[in-house]
Amino acid sequence: MSINTNTNNASSPSPLKRAGERLAILGAGESGVGAAYLAQQQGYDVFVSDFGVIAPHYKDQLLQWNISFEESQHTESEILSAVEVIKSPGIPDKAPIIKKIKEKGIPVISEIEFAGRYTNARIVGITGSNGKTTTSSLTYFTLKNAGLNVGLAGNIGRSFAYQVATESFDTYVLELSSFMLDDMYKFKVDIAVLLNITPDHLDRYDYKMENYAASKFRITQNQTANDVFIYCADDPETIKVMEARSFAAKLYPFSIEKQITTGADLENDNIVINTPQEHFTMSINELALQGKHNIYNSMASGIVAKVLELRNDTLRDSLATFKNIEHRLEFVAKISGISFINDSKATNVNSTWYALESMTSDVVLILGGVDKGNDYSMLRDLVKQKVKAIVCLGKDNQRIHAAFEDLVDVIVNTSSAADAAQAAYHLAAKGDTVLLSPACASFDLFKNYEDRGNQFKAAVKEL
């Protein structure tokens, strides 16, 4: 256990709007440390508490900024004296300290909610069970390509709060997880994008899809007639909720299954986007991101661009030249004619379905990790069509064996990225693809999905 209580500010925060008021921040990761910096700048008495060990670079930042913090504990007297608490998205409401904070009537908010108070920038918010990181990155790339003064934050990159404290962007693209949305109340998204709703994190939502769906729809709260809501008209869970609600914002659906008058659809292998002022068309064969799921992602991003009245040539160039993010269907290498793809960010079954759906060769699939109550049945048809062998990468692989042993002749167990890469290499033949798309969280063997992906890439390069 350690605690740092150096509160001598090297420079006085400006403006001193909250002098003397305690703001407690739970979790000293990217969002928590960024929120601490912004809160100090706004004149709060800031205290950061992390029940785990704080990563060295975040600890160094807190020390450099003279912000009080503790790690490996929660000191209740320090936290419960706060006028407000900013909570890391990863801390569940059932955590004992959160229960005590709420019993005392202290408001608990997200870093996004807090940072939103201190910026007048236009907000493009993107959520969904799958594709939100890709779509957020593509949207940011497109807006930046068009010359907009734009920042990228939320579940990606530097925290929103830190950027609000240190930058002066006119527009932000925010990737918003359901955990972030749960602690957002007055924050308003000007252009909201909901890509899809499929089972994920149900342990946080009493194993009820309706609770999880309601969380996703919080992205539309506080929207007015001047705002925009972009959504997938092909997603049954999204449509189910929409049929029971009314929306103030302008609605722009996108679909590859039906014709859309205002929004985006697919016509003769062309994406067609229509907004009241704008028309855009582009062949799906020209898209940088291939696969059915990426047509949806490109449509959603394209509607944002046309709502903002970006030039067609800028949008076309962006959709054609964008390079996908690390750990999301990332090409690693081709060895002996075998392609290796890192899709470590696929931490749920639906993400793995999308990855398999985009494969055009026989696949050796690396699956496994911390199973969040996965239903693997939706993968069975694609596994039957495309997968020649499965390599399990996790401590407990019984459910994967049970789900696929009647479809795949070879299922092997491994317990490290190096072993998994080696096993997959020996099972694959020239022209095949080795796909790391685990459908599970990574915490049994790795620090996070990035660590899993990096270890896999390093192992492939050693082959």
TrEMBL record:
Could you tell me where this protein is found in the cell? Cytoplasm
**Matches recorded under Pfam families:** Mur_ligase_C (PF02875), Mur_ligase_M (PF08245), MurD-like_N (PF21799)
Report the source organism.
Mucilaginibacter ximonensis
Q: Which PANTHER family does the record match to this protein?
A: UDP-N-ACETYLMURAMOYLALANINE--D-GLUTAMATE LIGASE
Q: Report the Gene3D superfamilies cross-referenced here.
A: Mur ligase, C-terminal domain (3.90.190.20), Mur-like, catalytic domain (3.40.1190.10), NAD(P)-binding Rossmann-like Domain (3.40.50.720)
GO function terms (MF aspect) = UDP-N-acetylmuramoylalanine-D-glutamate ligase activity
Domain called Mur ligase C-terminal: residue spans? 327-440
- Protein name according to UniProt: UDP-N-acetylmuramoylalanine--D-glutamate ligase
Summarizing the function annotation, the protein's role is: Cell wall formation. Catalyzes the addition of glutamate to the nucleotide precursor UDP-N-acetylmuramoyl-L-alanine (UMA).
